[in-house]
């Protein structure tokens, strides 16, 4: 294996491990308010403005089918609602309800406490550097995907 293959493998395995750890943290923060990490992820995607299921999937890097399943569950719990989409007749927009917004608000104190612990462990400057590096990595992967075209 080449040094670059080792780097790619190390990057991928570390990101996979981080994904699992962040999902564990998100579940620990969300479960006390009746949500899961996946519920919180979908709700979080539409806090600023409603999005279609496909838009949420693109934003979160997960499959459209997964988002649809979670959005349907959240709608059944009264946490989101489907709204007409002026840009597409069949692809409704997902928007949080007051109940969904309240659930996310109730996560906030535990979220803030964990953020303080994590940034305290890393240091604020280092945490910001790591975030920048992860954004650079995501941008590079997006650019390579665009070069490769659809599929």
Secondary-structure blueprint:
Layout: H1 3-30, H2 37-45, E1 51-52, H3 53-60, H4 64-76, E2 80-83, E3 93-96, H5 98-122, H6 124-148
Antiparallel strand pairs: 1-3, 2-3
Helix pairs in contact: 1-2, 2-4, 3-4, 5-6
Protein name: MarR family transcriptional regulator
Pfam families: MarR_2
InterPro entries: HTH_MarR-typ, MarR/SlyA-like, WH-like_DNA-bd_sf, WH_DNA-bd_sf
Descriptive overview:
The protein is mostly helical and 151 residues long. It contains six helices and three strands. A three-stranded antiparallel β-sheet has the order 1-3-2. Helix 1 packs across helix 2 (37-45), helix 2 crosses helix 4 (64-76) and helix 3 packs across helix 4 (64-76). The model has no long low-confidence stretch (mean pLDDT 95). It comes from Glycomyces endophyticus. This is MarR family transcriptional regulator.
């Amino acid at each position: 294996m080449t040094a670059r293959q080792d780097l790619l493998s190390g990057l991928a395995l570390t990101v996979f491990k981080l994904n699992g750890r962040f999902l564990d943290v998100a579940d620990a923060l969300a479960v006390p308010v009746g949500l899961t990490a996946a519920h919180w992820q979908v709700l979080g995607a539409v806090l600023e403005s409603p999005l279609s299921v496909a838009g949420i999937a693109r934003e979160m890097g997960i499959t459209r089918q997964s988002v649809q399943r979670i959005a349907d569950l959240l709608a059944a719990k009264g946490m989101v609602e489907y709204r007409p989409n002026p840009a597409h007749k069949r692809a409704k927009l997902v928007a949080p309800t007051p109940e969904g917004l309240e659930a996310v608000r109730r996560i906030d104190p535990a979220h803030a406490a964990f953020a303080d612990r994590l940034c305290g462990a890393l240091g604020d400057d280092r945490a910001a550097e790591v975030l920048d590096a992860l954004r650079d990595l995501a941008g590079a992967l997006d650019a390579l995907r665009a070069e490769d075209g659809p599929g």
